Amino acid sequence: MVSLDGQPSPGLTNTFGTQMREECFTFSEGYRPLNHGSFGTFPKEVRDYQRQLQDESEARPDTFIRYTYLKLLKESKIAVASLLGADPGEVVLVQNATTGVNTVLHNVDFQPSDTILHFGTIYGACSKTIQSLSEDRPLSSYAIDITYPIDDDEILWRFRSAIDEVKSQGKTPRLAMFDTVLTFPGARFPFERLVATCKELGILSFIDGAHGVGHIDLTYLGDVSPDFFISNCYKWLMVPRGCAVLYVPFRNQHMISSTVPTSWGYEIKEERDKMDHRDYFSRLFDKISTTDNTPYCCIPKALDFRNRVCGGEAKLREYCEDLALRGGDRMAKILGTEVLGASSASFRRCCFVNVQLPLSLKELDVDASSGLGIAKWMQELTPAEYETYIPIKFYAGGFWCRISGQVYLTVEDLEWAAETLLLICKRAKAGEWK
């Protein structure tokens, strides 16, 4: 077995910013990692640990895959459950949030007239999953339109109004899907209040927490007790790709009869009915298919790094959120624009910041139909010529960027991002996007 005991590298400190980026991570020299939210990254020592596990797997394939892996998997489930305030028996690991979403939605026994509610800010892959299901299942979907900035009370009001509208059409609001933190704009969502509303009205709640564990405090999730919850571990928890945690409380585990894809853990209904659904749920996900599952085994090592080197989850979150707040304000000042939402806005309590670019359709002499293409051109320019990647979207009639706060960044990095965006906007105004 590979030991989880790790020691800091020579000269390593827990100083956040440039020093941590250079000493603890593997970024290319000169590269500015401003988009942690899309694919995440993981420290050198977690990389080394994973490689040791891969070497062990190749040295004794059957021993590792059949026995060692299951022991490490159990340890990882215990570790990640503690971050969710959940029982280890309520969590399993899958490769990514999209897999978790498909697993849950393909297992729910939808009936004619059933409707899935979601917000217009839903992640694209989740939206397409619902569309795909609707082609061969007796269900429909209802999208709730929202545009930021918007306060939580308004979101809740629109949610209840949508439920009333679905019912008025003679349909059944069966399941509601919503985020912990939105992808774009990057904004914290009032998932706790939405879960409570779902419980009140008898609707299944499914939280897409892709930007969840390692990003915001979720140690109370067990008390919130959504019906289903999925969260990537490779984004904000510093675990190798791909790894995600799927939380299904004991009360709902009987609803999950198969993984996606179906594999060795599956049993037909007659056999499932004879089994304890808790045991069946856990066994179902122990081995889905032959692949490199070492990312699943790296959760304890990632948590060790976050505690030992970063000072713990609370300290890490505090730095990242503060960086997003202060760095975002500095960017807006340099750009001469604004941050999406006041610093006191509840949706800004996360590690993302959205900053408007000094560019308008009027200046470009185009209409809104060109906005998406121009934003895409600017976004693609960032890795092609500026050694970074900055998500840029045409949103609510303007051009916006999303920056991820992380322990390996400083306010100076975000100031550099603003100066770079000024150059890109100047090039756009000169017509280079055409």
Task: Lay out the secondary structure.
Elements (H helix, E strand, L loop, with lengths): L17 H7 L11 H4 L4 H16 L1 H24 L6 E4 L2 H11 L6 E6 L4 H13 L2 E6 L7 H17 L3 E8 L11 H11 L2 E5 L12 H4 L3 E5 L11 E4 L21 H4 L4 H8 L9 H4 L1 H10 L4 H23 L16 E5 L4 H4 L6 H15 L6 E4 L2 E7 L6 H19 L5
Parallel strand pairs: 2-3, 2-4, 4-5, 5-6
Antiparallel strand pairs: 1-7, 6-7, 8-10, 9-10
| CA gyration radius, whole angstroms | 22 Å
Q: Strand share of the residues?
A: 5-15%
Distance between the termini: 57 Å
Average predicted local confidence, pLDDT: 94
Main β-sheet: number of strands, strand sense, barrel status?
7 strands, mixed
Question: Might you state the CATH topology name of the largest domain?
Answer: Aspartate Aminotransferase, domain 2
> Any idea of the CATH class of the largest domain?
Alpha Beta
Domain Aminotransferase class V: 71-250
Pfam family, one: Aminotran_5
Keywords: Pyridoxal phosphate
Protein name: Aminotransferase class V domain-containing protein
